[in-house]
Design brief:
This protein is an alpha+beta fold. It has a domain of 36 residues. Helix content is 42%, strand content 18%. The chain contains twelve helices and twelve strands. A hairpin with a 2-residue loop joins strand 2 and strand 3. Helix 3 runs parallel beside helix 9, helix 3 packs across helix 10 and helix 7 packs antiparallel against helix 9. The protein is flat.
Length: 388
């Protein structure tokens, strides 16, 4: 696309000409506000990917286990379960997890603030925007705590030097350059997001200009414009002939000027394919098979069901397991119990086909005992029952 434009521009170089629209590419800044606005708020592909991941993670039921020595006991009634179901008066449990995961995908970091009672157990949980948290270090360079910045107010939540406990929990992705910062999947895809957004803007601008590309003003041999004349002419073109309200107006030229269109059609620019390529790169960075988004040109999986299964096994389950493991370790210190939060994957419909295939194979495995089969499925042994 760019080479084609260069060739047409080069052919005009021998003449004195004014080419409009020849600018260097610009990329979005990588601060939190810009990343959130350009991806989640403006880009349909990034928004859909983030929403799919966060909603699916939040939809997985969890089980609470208390480990006591070598015994692990499932608990159906616990104060922690109540807090997880209703983290605070303003949001439900699923919406809370969705918000927690969405922040992580957008910024690479996600924070939860715990409000605890007199005995140190959580009564409310709140997600905090990542850009409202700053990490404070001591003179030795060790992490001292988290500073919550709300307007002009700053609150320091210290980290206990012995237990490592804090009222703020941080979930972060790996960052190869910074110890306490995370690289978000969206940041890695930001250039592709910019390209996809600009393609949409280009299409809108093209439609507003009667689907006609820009062109060049060519001057006859021997004539040159002064800098002042150049600026005046450029301003006149922008004011009088650009925009939807000026569509169709004829250009009146004098002084040996000639208008020549740069015939860059959508086919020449490979517009549709370049937009689909950017969409595939966005989906790739976020771990969503393009087939699930209806993006053409990607047949990695033979059918929709395979793509959906891969999405759950490669993206949803690892992310959910990591988040709940971190939460369990945090809550264990608050309740002074060895808490384990386990995903109830048997309740996930997307995994039903694989689960049924496993059951069929185990049922036909005559060399395994009943308890061995139950153990492979995650069930306890049949105590006091017939095993034949």
């Amino acid at each position: 696309m760019f080479n084609l434009f260069q060739k047409q521009a080069k052919s005009l170089k021998s003449s004195n000409s004014i080419i409009f629209g020849d600018e260097e590419p610009e990329w979005s800044n990588k601060d939190y506000n810009t990343i959130a606005r350009e991806s989640y708020c403006k880009n349909v592909v990034a928004h859909r990917c983030i929403s799919m991941i966060a909603k699916n993670v939040a939809s997985i039921p969890i089980k609470l286990f208390i480990n006591k020595g070598e015994k692990k006991q499932q608990v159906d009634s616990h104060g922690l379960l109540d807090v997880i179901r209703q983290p605070n008066p303003f949001i439900g449990g699923k919406d809370f997890i969705e918000e927690f995961i969405s922040y992580s995908l957008i910024s690479g970091e996600s924070y939860i603030l715990s409000i605890r009672n007199a005995i140190g157990q959580p009564v409310e949980l709140h997600c905090i925007r990542p850009d409202m948290i700053k990490i404070r270090y001591d003179k030795s360079g060790n992490k001292q705590g988290y500073v919550y910045i709300a307007g002009e107010n700053k609150i320091l939540y210290k980290i206990d030097k012995i237990t490592g406990m804090s009222d703020i929990l941080m979930l972060k992705n790996f960052h190869p350059l910074y110890r306490d910062k995370g690289v978000s999947q969206v940041e890695a895809a930001l250039n592709s997001i910019d390209q996809h957004n600009q393609a949409s803007k280009w299409n809108q601008t093209l439609l507003q200009n009667s689907a006609r590309p820009s062109g060049a003003l060519i001057m006859s041999q021997g004539n040159m414009l002064t800098q002042k004349q150049y600026e005046q002419l450029k301003e006149q073109i922008q004011d009088c002939f650009a925009g939807v309200n000026n569509n169709g107006k004829p250009i009146l030229l004098e002084g040996g000027l000639e208008w020549k269109e740069l015939a860059l059609t959508p086919k020449d620019m490979d517009f549709i394919e370049s937009k689909n390529t950017a969409a595939r790169e966005i989906a790739l960075a976020l771990g969503v098979p393009p087939q699930l988004l209806g993006i053409p040109g990607d047949n990695t999986y033979s059918n929709f069901q395979e793509a959906r299964l891969a999405f759950w096994e490669d993206t949803i389950l690892p992310l959910a397991s990591r988040a709940y493991e971190l939460l369990a370790n945090w809550f264990s210190k608050m309740y002074d119990e060895d808490i384990e939060l386990t995903l109830d994957a048997d309740q996930v419909s997307a995994l039903s086909a694989k689960r049924e295939a496993l059951w069929t194979r185990l049922e036909q495995a005559s060399f395994l005992t009943i308890d061995e089969k139950r153990a492979m499925l995650g069930f306890p042994p049949m105590e006091g029952k017939s095993k034949t």
